[in-house]
Specification:
Shape: extended
Helix content: 25-40%
Number of helices: 16
Largest sheet: 6 strands, antiparallel
Structural class: alpha+beta
Number of strands: 19
Oligomer: single chain
Strand order of the largest sheet: 14-19-18-17-16-15
């Protein structure tokens, strides 16, 4: 069995270079991606120009602007960066089928048995670097027998072990410790292995099989993926390189620094297992129909759909999934592609529910000189569960009727959504608020259930509500006998009220800065039933307003 070989890919400028890719050449000069830490904006990622300008990660944004006046900034987008890393994982699948993500900016590949397909390990790394250069990405790679060693080589190869302090104190402390480590540092315990460079700018990033000790020995202890506090303690004791740790008694290291240090050391050297966990592949539901002769008639497209849709729905049903969004692609003979997308109000895997929606939008496909391939794909799927009506005969019949009525409503929503869009069809649900305009919330009909019984309000509410409109009337809380609204004089012949409504004191709502309101249901001589209120005034002046109209 071939020895295990692990490749670590590190994208040190992932966030900044992603922002440059999104700008498509519109950004010039140094770029910094910033994020908020402890109520302060700091630099989270830099491009090559930013690093050349002397900026550093973790630097406060105000200091970065002081150093580089022409610095361009973008806010960090963790979700977008994660999606970009997932796209890079799919790209890395060309080198190995076993690829795992290491958020936020790394990938881990198991190359066992794969390197010879690219002409060897060095040629594979050159291919990966060339691909990343073409994509505008910086890449550092490390290849070794273990994930820990590959991770360390990708990030720390060529870096000399430094210290946190300077002066004679550093040379005077822990001399005995370093002396013992130097005496025991055989190549099997961290010394330089035969034929392997130790350090320097040209340090190799490929550790030959079985040479992990020599490859990791000159690297800083931070390459073991330790927390900063442990690294600082080790540096204070003079243990700055991994080779210094390899010459120390394990029991003493575990006693002083905990088992985590020894475990990381064992993982890097291969004494402790560390698997590469690839992401679970997304389950896709799609069918394709290749045609011997180009087609272009509507009837031919429907015939192709009738052949593909049952197979697609059978796959959905076997997986316990239902289609929520379906995409039909028509590939033409001139290599152009036409596509339509339909949505369902409820996830389903019944061809009879999906076919009419596709038929409604077939007019949006331009066949051109002919279509030679059709592809049907479920772009959004959700789990579905079988619904069975149980109980006595009458109760079972009632349940079946309710389920059938619900399916009919879902089909109606789907057909309307195919015309105007699913998001354009909404329904209202009651909301727990005494503010008139907040007693209902608007939800998308396709992603919500019908509302139950609406709670009865304390007083009648108008059929129509609009933003409060000024009413010309005496500035007094008493209901006026006459007033002027929308350019016409009105006379009140009947009124009911007042109903006092106070604003939500825990919110600063601009519409309620007029303070407490007294509402009246007023019937005018013209027959209109208006909903007037007197605002007692708060941060805004008091006065009379019209808020709605009764049926």
């Amino acid at each position: 069995m071939p020895k295990r070989r692990i490749l670590s890919l590190w994208f040190p400028r992932l966030a900044a270079e992603r922002a440059l890719r999104l700008a498509r050449g519109a950004l010039e000069g140094p770029l910094a991606v910033v994020e908020e830490r402890a109520n302060m904006q700091v630099v989270a990622s830099l491009d090559a120009a930013g690093e050349a300008a002397g900026l550093r990660l973790g630097q406060p944004l105000r200091d970065a602007h002081a150093v580089c006046a022409g610095l361009a900034t973008r806010s960090r987008d963790p979700a977008g960066e994660a999606a970009f890393l997932t796209a890079l994982r799919r790209w890395a699948g060309k080198f190995s089928p076993w690829v795992g993500e290491q958020a936020p900016d790394g990938l881990m590949l198991d190359l066992t048995g794969c390197a010879h397909l690219f002409g060897g390990e060095a040629a594979l790394l050159e291919q990966a670097e060339a691909d990343c250069a073409a994509m505008g990405l910086s890449l550092r790679a490390g290849l070794a027998d273990t994930p820990g060693a590959a991770w360390a080589l990708a990030r720390f190869a060529g870096q000399a072990a430094g210290s946190e302090r300077s002066g004679d104190a550093i040379d005077q402390e822990a001399r005995a410790t370093r002396s013992r480590a130097g005496k025991r540092r055989h190549w099997t315990r961290g010394g330089a292995a035969p034929g392997l460079a130790a350090t320097g700018a040209g340090a190799p990033r490929i550790a030959p099989p079985g040479k992990a000790y020599g490859a990791l020995s000159p690297l800083p202890v931070a390459a073991l993926r330790l927390d900063p506090d442990t690294v600082a303690q080790l540096n204070r004791l003079g243990l700055r390189r991994i080779g210094d740790l390899l010459g120390q008694p394990r029991a003493g290291l575990a006693r002083r620094f905990g088992k985590g240090l020894v475990h990381r050391l064992d993982q890097a050297m291969g004494s402790a297992p560390e698997p590469v966990s690839p992401a679970r592949p997304e389950r896709r539901f799609a069918v394709r129909l290749t045609l011997p002769e180009p087609i272009g008639l509507r009837a031919d497209l429907l015939a192709g759909i009738d052949r593909m849709l049952p197979r697609l729905c059978a796959g959905l049903e076997a997986a316990g999934q239902g289609a929520r969004q379906v995409r039909l692609e028509a590939h033409r003979t001139d290599r152009a592609a036409e596509a339509i997308t339909v949505g369902l109000a409820r996830p389903g895997n019944d061809p009879a529910r999906i076919r009419p929606l596709l038929e409604l939008k077939l007019d949006g496909i331009d066949a051109g000189f002919g279509i030679d391939m059709l592809r049907l794909e479920v772009t959004r799927a959700e789990p579905v569960h079988a619904r069975t009506a149980v109980g006595h005969m009458q109760a079972g019949q009632t349940a079946r009727t309710r389920l059938e009525d619900g399916a009919a409503l879902d089909d109606l929503l789907g057909r309307l959504g195919a015309r105007v869009g699913m998001e354009a069809i909404t329904r209202r649900h009651p909301a727990a608020s005494h503010i008139p305009e907040k007693t209902a919330q608007v939800l998308a009909a396709a992603w919500s259930e019908p509302a139950g019984a609406w709670p009865a309000p304390a007083a009648p509410r108008p059929l129509l509500l609009w933003p409060p409109e000024p009413v010309i009337a005496p500035d007094a809380p008493d209901l006026p006998a006459g007033f002027r609204w929308r350019g016409r004089d009105r006379a009140a012949v009947a009124a009911a009220g007042p109903e006092r409504i106070a604003p939500e004191w825990w919110l600063d709502d601009p519409a309620w800065r007029s303070g407490v309101r007294d509402y009246w249901a007023v019937t005018t001589r013209d027959g209109d039933r208006l909903w007037l209120f007197y605002a007692h005034g708060a941060t805004m002046s008091p006065g009379w307003f019209c808020h709605g109209r009764f049926a």
